[in-house]
Amino acid sequence: MRRAHSVVYLLIAILGVCDVVHAQGEGTPGFVVGACTHFSQGKGIVDRNLDRIQQAGITSIRDEVPWGALEREKGKLVMPESFDTYVRQAAARGVSVLLILDYANRFYDDGDRPRSPEAIEGFCRYAEFVVRHFGKHVRLYEVWNEWDIGIGLSERYRKGGSAEDYVKLLRAVYPRIKAANPGVMVMAGGCTSGGVKKGWLEETIKLGALDFCDAISIHSYNYSAKFPQRGPEACSAWMTGVQEMLRRYKGGAGVPPLGVAGILPAVRGRDALDTKAQGQDALATQGRDALDTKTQGRDALATQGQDALATKMQGRDALDTQGQDALATKTQGRDALATQGQDALATKTQGQDALATQGRDALATKTHGQDALATGRVTASGVRSLPGDVPFYVTEMGWPTHVGRNGTDPELAGSYLARLYLLARTSASFQGIWWYDFQDDGWKADYNEDNFGLVRPDLTPKPAYHVLRHIAPVVAHGRFVDCLPTPDENLWVLRFQVGREDCWALWSADDQERQVILQTEVPARPVMIRQTGHEAYLTKWGFRDWTNRRSELVPNRLSLVVGPRPYLIGNDLSGVSVVEVIARLRQAATTP
Fold this sequence. Notes:
The protein is an alpha/beta fold. It is about 25% helix and about 15% strand. The protein has helices at about 1-15, 45-55, 65-70, 80-90, 115-135, 165-180, 195, 200-205, 230-250, 370-375, 410-425, 465-475; strands at about 30-35, 60-65, 95-100, 140-145, 185-190, 215-220, 375-380, 385, 390-395, 430-435, 480-485, 490-500, 500-510, 515-520, 525-530, 535-540, 555-560, 565-570, 575-585. Strands 1-2-3-4-5-6-9-10 form an 8-stranded parallel barrel, surrounded by 4 helices. Helix 5 runs parallel beside helix 6 (about 165-180), helix 6 (about 165-180) packs across helix 8 and helix 11 (about 410-425) runs parallel beside helix 12.
């Protein structure tokens, strides 16, 4: 019976047979593997795009229904047919839809953010109309998009919006949305990484935002930073700090996300805290023994001063302020971290002098909030949620593949995508990511905004598309177990369970290649191996270092060269360990 289950789950988790689509239901369907679309801007071919979206294992799309496009005559709200089409087609396929309620209307406050009583009331009526119109077809809403920098507004209003004004709008619109449909989830925040770094998000929390939303969302771009701060591990560590901040205000101070304190690289740098943790986090598992993961981690989250991800440039093409064409929300300026002096993330936090050595000193540390684990609830994604958790989403994130400054090689962008999604599952409160975006916005090779997509403008897949297809089943359906201790601080091994089967994800955080020697107690049991984005293969145990002709076959060992792109290995991996890691750097030889 176990062998039968092995075949099924290995096909799902490793072979990438993942046309698994979550039905639209109450709230969110487990961990959200999402992508941003621009159907509301008339981009793409709805049914063709949705075909590709489902084939990639994407469970949700994020789009918008701008206020200016619905209220073209003051006091009269009409849903454009094109908006109805994409929302209902997605919902009919079982793809959940996150709708942004956003942008100004020329009839109110002269096209600025709604701040006056009349404008706020107008926005509330618009939000109520949208929620009632779509009813059960849409369960996820986000209030505004990047209020902190003025996206979607005309040039004269494209300046920083205050946290006070945003919370004022939240206080008014949240109860109206919930009254229109109590079953929806309302996300607040939707701010840039700069908005988090500069304190805008925290200021909204101080002003009571958590009382007027169901979840917090942010945008976590870091592609304009220098390596290693532009990598997924740095981004994940920074987001852990954001979640800690939310938990502190919610009343759960001191209780870190499950398994994160010792895993994430918040304190891998030279100034890392040398606070040795000596504990064991026992996770209740589905019929398996509690994990006994002893760690020696550092207090990665003790100070979460994550001065962290560099902010996006303030500027996207203005939404038509008269609402006639109010769909052009494309940014023109994430790349401009450079002009804001943010070529790198400010990593001055205690114990995060930058991931300079990228070391992982330890795993799954015991915390003084450990007792809370017993009473924590298990979320739909299978991750234990702790008291004080605030549901947390990243509604925009990506590495653009343009040519030139701050661009990312398409292959490396695929590797970063996989690593960030996998790392997201190590947190209890992290509930989903919407990749920005699904489809390139144009053909300009040197323009960042035209190159964020998983596919080209004609739907030709990039490497990241194939990578996402392979990790989506693990991320959406798997349960994070722990991070395996390894002899090399740059080698990451995250362990998941998909159904009854084990699935490990391995990669090098410094993007260099390493030969990883695995050892098993049961050499008769084969393993399935796949480099994400490539074909899988089944292999037997047995390793011989034949470069040394005198060496003999070791029947219970296996060798794998791991680099920036995660490998997935699966089957029953009980009794498997990493016994040796050898650097295999591939640097071009130089001629004297």
